[in-house]
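Lab meeting, item 3. Inverse folding demo.
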């Protein structure tokens, strides 16, 4: 097999995924997704529940087969060569479950036996820094500590690519910060590439340099964080700017705002507004929405 040198670590070409083709209702979980996640980046994959985030991430480790299109991890097709793709990816599934009755140390042992080259010293060192006792059973750790163990197991693989599916969902704000700090320093130190999903952007904006917004299985926005914010403006719904109207979306107090891709006019958008505006722009008309 040839590895494409210099190609993006995570790439998709027109990937679509439809669930339930034979029986019952069909769900289009991914629609024509084209992505190229550059090396060394930390990309936030943001979208509401059901947007297709987990389907995309599972696809990268060969647990879902695209209905059409192609995807690669470090140039490898994970569906055809699952073992090789997984060997290059540290994957932390949504609701990553540890074995409650095993200790942290036993989890490290297991990872080392399952994965050639697992860096037990690195994983152990990270957990020590966080004061997570290695002799404690996983079931007796807090949610934040369990998430840190999951991350340490993923980082111990020394994988080139980290795929983290809603790793922060069950953490309190302080635990989120600690988790992200560990992630950012690991990615910087190892030069790896991370894709992490969340249903809200606020948690992760400090840690990420790129943003992909997924809505209804479609890529709504794919840009650097700086460009995503810098290229958008907010106006009242009836104002007009020289630029493209992305959508009119409900703001906090029920009033409507308009999101524009424009260089001037109105006021600068913040990241929440950009994400919200793109999510609204991607919603199907009310008549086509499931109840
Ligand atoms: N194994 C499955 N079988 C059938 N439908 C599924 C399956 N997994 C996910 N879906 C559907 O695909 C859509 C995308 O799901 P998912 O990728 O889990 O979204 P997210 O992770 O963004 O919440 C949802 O409508 C979900 O109900
Ligand atoms: Mg999910």
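The presenter then showed the designed sequence:
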């Amino acid at each position: 097999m040839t590895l494409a040198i210099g190609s993006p670590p995570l790439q998709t070409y027109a990937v679509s995924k439809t669930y339930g083709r034979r029986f019952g209702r069909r769900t289009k979980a991914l629609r024509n997704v084209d992505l190229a996640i550059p090396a060394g980046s930390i990309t936030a994959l943001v979208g509401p529940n059901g947007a297709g985030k987990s389907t995309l991430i599972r696809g990268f480790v060969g647990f879902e087969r695209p209905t059409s299109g192609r995807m690669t991890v470090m140039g490898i097709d994970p569906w055809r060569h699952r073992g090789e793709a997984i060997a290059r990816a540290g994957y932390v599934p949504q609701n990553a479950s540890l074995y409650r009755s095993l200790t942290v140390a036993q989890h490290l042992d297991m990872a080392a036996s399952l994965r050639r080259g697992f860096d037990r010293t690195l994983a152990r060192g990270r957990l020590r820094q966080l004061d997570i006792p290695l002799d404690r059973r996983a079931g007796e750790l807090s949610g934040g500590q369990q998430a840190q163990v999951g991350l340490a197991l993923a980082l111990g693989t020394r994988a080139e690519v980290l795929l983290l599916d809603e790793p922060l969902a069950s953490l309190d704000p302080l635990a989120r910060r600690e988790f992200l700090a560990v992630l950012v320093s690991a990615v910087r130190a190892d030069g790896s590439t991370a894709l992490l999903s969340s249903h809200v952007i606020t948690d992760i904006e400090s840690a990420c340099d790129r943003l992909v917004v997924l809505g209804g299985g479609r890529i709504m926005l794919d840009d650097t964080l700086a460009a995503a914010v810098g290229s958008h403006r907010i106006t009242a719904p009836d104002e007009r700017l020289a630029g493209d109207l992305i959508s009119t979306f409900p703001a906090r107090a029920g009033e409507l705002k308009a999101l524009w891709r424009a260089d001037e006019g109105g006021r600068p958008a913040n990241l929440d507004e950009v994400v919200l505006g793109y999510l609204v722009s991607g919603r199907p008309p009310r008549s086509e929405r499931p109840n």
